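Need tokens for this chain, all 386 residues.
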Amino acid sequence: MKTLFVETVSEMGGAQQSLLELCTTLPSFNVEAAAAVPLGPLHDALRAAGVRVYATPHIRARRRGLGLFATLFKLSAAPWPIAKAIRDFAPHIVHANTTAATLAIRRVPRNTLLFSHIRDLRVPRLALQSVFKRSTRVIAISTALDNYLSTVVPQSELGRIRTIRNGIDTTRFTPGDKPAARQRFALPPDAPLIGMVAHISPWKAHDTFIAAAAKIRAARPDAHFVIAGRDLFGDQADWLRGLRAQAADAGLRTALHWVSDLDRTEALLPALDALVHPARREPFGRSVCEAMAARVPVVAAHSGGILDIITHGVNGIFVPEDDPGAIAQSVARLLDDPAYAAKLAEAGRQHILQHFTKERLAQQLAHEYAHAIAAEAHGKDSDTDE
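Here are the structure tokens for all 386 residues:
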């Protein structure tokens, strides 16, 4: 069985990391994987891993103003190199890694099936409806996305959806040496250290984290904080300046450490005493899984895909969205009760090892590929289960 993944972005965000892990893990489940992606970090990482790669145009979907027209123009030019990659590799499955990737695929050959990954709770309805018209299967990465899709597409299309949650590489994200991690990033060796790992974007709610940090600092003057992430596409300069100004106004100039040049978050996570994930309408929560795998206790906003990952008080702590006070109280409890923090952290690691590995994700996808191909071969309705 052969699968060609299609991606329109090469910067290494969560969706692109997932594609890389799938291409290197699916062969263990009898799926030969190749990828059609733009030149850049993802393309280079795939080639370094020995994956067959085809170069395609870079398209970052924009939804408003001139950016929307630029996106539409790029999408109109994208199908030709993608079609050439499909002809050359001759896959059984073409798997679009994102909504934009699906829209960039003009058509697939007869007897070739199209799978489309939906990874965002902010995809416009018209785009989603177009995805469903084109796709044999639509993969939702969380229950929250599945629920959202059920409100957008006709009832007759819902049989195309499969909820397959993301997985992570649990050989990368493991408990580590706290003193060494802190030394590597020039962080205070003995202070309580609370972190946030997320690319710089308003919906990730760094402003809520900074507000919570100010409250924690007022109660624990020895506490320090880390924001790890970068402006992935270089379009959040104003937002980042505002965050830095907010931190300075809150008196956190020396207590908040910014780590923007971070390609491998597993090196930082062991330095933390807790991870805070305040994102608004998070579609999945990859950094939450990574922290839990590294045995770091997590405080997260009760939102979106995080509900699939955390059980409150068992393997993590939920707080309401946009509630810095609740974050501060929860972090204080973790700092004041190390035994409770350790219990949550260990339960979190075991939960990820059981339910959110890249191997589990690849196995589930391989099963769906085989099921869809068999249904097509027997002339069954590919929208229904056996």
